[in-house]
Amino acid sequence: MNIEHYIAQLLYRHQCVTVPGFGAFLTEIQSAKWVESSHSFFPPKKFISFNSNIKNNDGLLANHIAHVEKTSYSYAVSAIQHEVLNWKKAMEQNGQLTLKNIGELSLNTENHVVFKPLDQNNYLTSSFGLSSFVSPLIKREVAQHIETVEEKEVIVFEPEHNNSRSFLKYAAIFVLGLGLTGSVGYPLYQNEMANQKTIVEKAVQKQVETKIQEATFFIQNPLPAVTLSIKETKMSYHVMAGAFRDEKNAEKIFKRLSNLGYKAKRIPQNKHGLYPVLYGSYATFAEAEQAKKEIQEKDNPEAWLLIESL
Fold this sequence. Notes:
Layout (H helix, E strand, L loop, with lengths): L3 H8 L4 E4 L3 E8 L2 E3 L4 E3 L2 E7 L8 H10 L3 H22 L1 E4 L3 E5 L5 E5 L15 E2 L29 H57 L16 E8 L2 H13 L5 E2 L8 E8 L2 H14 L5 E4 L3
Antiparallel strand pairs: 1-2, 2-5, 3-4, 4-9, 6-7, 7-8, 10-12, 10-13, 11-12
């Protein structure tokens, strides 16, 4: 089975994808970057690294493969183990291993694994559609304009002196008429302004009375109470005690765990005819992982983690 395809799918949603018995691929979000020397822009992305010391099976990859392939969890674990053996064999023979859309693994002189991620894929979903680009340097040219001033002949206007006296006569008549009109029209203008002022004051008073009536109505008739509904937190991570063919054995384990103080649960019979029993359910992967470690140390070293599809 080619499992690197499933690893790439999980890298979009998780910060750590562990391949049991091989190592873990870790992601770290990097901010957008502008390289001034090369005029290049790089959008935000997830940087992928590899840690060969994290090899424990956290159930994430196996559960994902079992869900997608519609097969059992145990079969998915076996498929992962078989693929890991092929990977190790390829690295011993060729000195390197290329995982599609993830990166290249190789061995150094000290026989340690060196990982080189591929930059083609961006596993940060919020940067979907963004790509890096190079902006060429903008060169600006200063245009020089030379204006030529031509000498033009100056035109001189000479006023006519014959009609100056007649113009002054008509101007005097116009000023006299304007004065008479102003003395009669100014009182009319004052009366019109007073009427407009009275109309505006009445309109404002009417609007104030309306607002007071509306405010009284809302005081006498309070608004209905608002009911808020709180969404229940989904418990998607389960620490499993085992799955039993005989329902009596499942009930026996369930009672034992309950007596020990665990919030044990029984799951209805699955499609494989087994009766699963779990220690407890948790809202986050970190809580479930911590509980699994404590259970493995105190009660059951074979306890494992079941993750529902999100």
